[in-house]
């Protein structure tokens, strides 16, 4: 086993159980078919493993955001769609972020979440400023509002899906709705980049 194997197993346990308490050495060793000796070869203690798992999640999140920003140059609607897919779609497909948010009372978790979410919000607000000409304040408020809205929806979809009509939608339809919510009354259907394009007056 490598240190990366242990970190991935720790994230999987967190995702499955929804709590940092799921990250325990003996159960993880059983999950991996490894020994406690393998763990102590790579980590001094459980806290070191949690730090490694959080660093791994942050690195992946940063890579995903960078990749989203690198595509669809010259196609604003398509780029916004990829940003939304990275920022909010992941919460529906992968419970890791929701589990981390539930553990945000832990300072080490809160610090990682703040860095990751700040990068995402800055990217989305930057797109809004460049594409719609919004002020920095308005763009930041709109990006934060959408982010909170979508994470709340993701939590409800996982916990009580029957409350939301989106439970029966595929991801593309949910992205359409999120993009319209982001752009407000300026949003119209358009084929550009497979998403929506802000109207121009």
TrEMBL record:
InterPro entries from the UniProt entry: Homeodomain-like_sf (IPR009057), HTH_TetR (IPR001647)
Range of residues in the leader sequence: none
Domain of life: Bacteria
Residue spans binding DNA: 24-43
Keywords tagged on the record: DNA-binding
PROSITE patterns the record matches: HTH_TETR_2
Residues covered by the HTH tetR-type domain: 1-61
Protein name per Swiss-Prot or TrEMBL: TetR/AcrR family transcriptional regulator
Taxonomic path: Bacteria, Bacillati, Actinomycetota, Actinomycetes, Kitasatosporales
